[in-house]
Amino acid sequence: MTMNLVLQGPQASSDTLERLAALARPARIARLGEHALRCEDLPFAAPLREQVEAAAFEAGVDACFIEAGRRLTDFGLVAMDMDSTLITIECIDEIADMQGLKPQVAAITEAAMRGELDFAASLARRVALLEGLEASALQRVYDERLRISPGGEAMLAAVRAAGLKTLLVSGGFTFFTDRLKDRLGLDHTHANLLEVEDGRLTGRVLGGIVDAQEKMRTVERVCAGLGIAPQQAIVVGDGANDLQMMGIAGLSVAFRAKPVVRAQASVALNFSGLDGLLNILA
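Now predict its structure.
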């Protein structure tokens, strides 16, 4: 199989990129910008991939192998996780901080994202700890702490320009996905609904929990509605609960992800912003 190798990193020097490219012995090299290049027409082999990826990771560079000729316009949908993917924070951890419980909740979140805990059970445990918190804390988190991940808005602009639809599917909460949908012009969102009574969180989620299987089903439903196969979707995630939806995608992207996710994704962006996707499919 003939592959291309995209090397990129926000701090990558030309010398570093060229040194890494030499490991792959490409037929040609194409410059993609000041901090990115593409090695073209490589005879792909697993040992080569392992060697290049290890050297690149040590150098702070993303090394992404992809079939030659693949372009953004080959796809019809970009589906994204929210927490620690499209945005830089884990919303539930920041909400818990308003209760003085961030360390306890963050530890559960981290274990769930590594795949060590059942996601639905872990979410129920974390949400229960929020009981009694004023619902206004959610707005404070949105206003004061929520930030779009580097390159996120540039990636979304390019995706829209190429005619792709967007889906934000999250094990987090509709309070945030609804606002991000309006703010970023997203086409579809799906997340958990926190129950609020008398202006305070009850510590419960209304309806079914958006776990790994529901994330996958959501990608399937949206693709069906668009008249495309899941193989025409790009799915971006960082945690173990993203693996099922990443597994049905035509291209899965691990973004600043846990090791279990990096190991199974088509490509990984460990250092670049979300707009690194654009170089991979240039």
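The longest helix spans residues 212-226.
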